[in-house]
Design brief:
Number of helices: 21
Oligomer: single chain
Radius of gyration: 23 Å
Distance between the termini: 38 Å
Strand content: 5-15%
Length: 431
């Protein structure tokens, strides 16, 4: 029937549906359950039903609703919830304030996140950690480290989540030696034993900076078995710095932990493709055919007028499909005039060059951006949420679109936020 958690949620929802009377506690409980299991659209749908039932939400309800908004990047909805909190004078205690800080950061509006943070009378370690992690993920690594210093100066003791933000900030800026200093001070200064998340940050930091052997040595010295995220961080660094030998070792370990995840095979296949090692590309494809691969399709969502629209690669399900593809054609004409050349080496399918160009052009984030350009007024920022890592070709294309169309484009991918403006990105090609 499903996992124990999904069974419990099903039972909770059934009891809720059959209840004669539903008060704010029962509504908040079921909304919170959906938010915690990241069934965020369902959580927001239930909140809407709660309002139609004239049940007044409280702080607890709002914390869960804001978490759901942050999960799917629904900034418009999140702003409406914030306005509702202000209009109905719901008390913004430390937990609700922290939820607002977190929601705005996850929805790509770091300025509003910091505005809420600065207005809070009291802040605990979770509030500070949310701000530090938000700044780090938005590419403001130096500001994140400054916030950490302010937090310590105010006498707030950091926790392990704080250090995920601090180490992420160092990783995104390439500050490996500083990152190592923070990592060692966790236990030496603050008495916090690093967990696998912090070790994963350090492996990612070494790997991104091209210090792949140091990353591998740290994995060997970890006091626990590395998880898939650690091996994926190493594999990502190998892809960037073209170390196929170490990539193969990382992949072997990764496939033992996640034998059915298609992304692990795709990373290795793309690396072989870029290096024109066609025999190894064929071998990876055979491995994929021989194993029951769970394909995770790339999807991108964009919020327009408080509604979230989701696209997959080659999507033709949207009512505006014809207009979207016409817009895409216009975009690519302008891109090519600006000197764009498709990175067809990223396409591992057995296609000719023209077909590879079409496959790249129809990636989900490009479709979402085409729709965003069509459905919003000029200069309106576009915010995209991508479920996977943004590919190199899409990254290049979005930089050019931001310049050609004079748009700020914020993309949240699996790793971080990318703020594209006037042809550049805050990640500085480091993601």
């Amino acid at each position: 029937m499903g996992t124990p958690r999904s069974v419990m949620l099903w039972r909770q929802k059934k009891l809720f549906d059959n209840a004669r009377q539903r008060d704010v506690v029962s509504w908040s409980s079921v909304i919170g359950a959906y938010a915690r299991t990241r069934q965020s659209n369902e959580a927001l749908k239930l909140f809407h039903e709660m309002q139609l039932a004239n049940v007044v939400p409280d702080n607890v309800t709002m914390v869960s609703v804001l978490a759901a908004c942050g999960d799917i990047g629904a900034l418009g909805m999140g702003k409406m919830i914030h306005e509702y909190i202000q209009r109905t004078r719901i008390e913004v205690d430390m937990k609700l304030g922290t939820s607002l800080v977190d929601m705005y950061a996850k929805c790509g509006d770091i300025d509003s996140s910091l505005c809420v943070f600065n207005r809070m009378d009291r802040r605990d370690v979770l509030t500070w950690s949310s701000a530090i992690l938000g700044l780090a993920n938005h590419g403001s690594g130096q500001a994140a480290l400054e916030f950490f210093s302010k937090m310590i100066a105010e006498g707030i003791k950091p926790n392990d989540i704080t250090f995920v933000g601090v180490l992420s900030a160092c990783s995104h800026m390439g500050l490996v030696d500083e990152g190592w200093t923070y990592f060692t001070c966790m236990s030496d200064v603050y008495g916090i034993t690093p967990k696998i998340e912090q070790y994963g940050c350090m492996v990612d930091m070494f790997a991104r900076a091209g210090r792949l052997q140091e990353a591998r040595e740290l994995i060997r010295r970890m006091p626990f078995a590395p998880d898939a995220a650690v091996w994926r961080a190493l594999l990502g660094g190998c892809r960037v710095h073209k170390d196929t030998d170490l990539a193969e070792e990382a992949t072997v370990n990764l496939l033992e932990l996640e034998p059915h995840a298609d992304g692990n095979y795709v990373l290795l296949s793309n690396m072989y493709t870029q290096e024109k090692k066609w025999d190894k590309v064929i071998h990876v494809r055979k491995m994929m055919r021989n194993v029951n691969i769970e394909k995770v399709p790339g999807s991108s969502s964009i919020e327009v007028d408080n509604a979230v629209y989701e696209f997959v690669a080659g999507d033709k399900s949207h009512p505006w499909t014809e207009k979207i593809y016409q817009m895409l054609s216009e975009i690519f004409k302008k891109l090519k005039l600006a000197g764009y050349k498709p990175l067809t080496s990223l396409v591992s399918q057995d296609l000719d060059e023209r077909q590879k160009e079409i496959a790249l052009a129809h990636h989900s984030e490009k479709l979402a951006i085409a729709f965003g350009l069509l459905s919003t007024t000029p200069r309106t920022p576009l915010r995209i949420v991508k479920n996977l890592r943004i590919c190199d070709d899409c990254h290049l294309v979005i930089k050019l679109i931001s310049k050609i169309y004079n748009r700020e484009i914020i993309v949240r991918d699996r790793n971080r936020f990318h703020h594209f403006l006037e042809g550049s990105c805050t990640c500085r090609e480091y993601w």
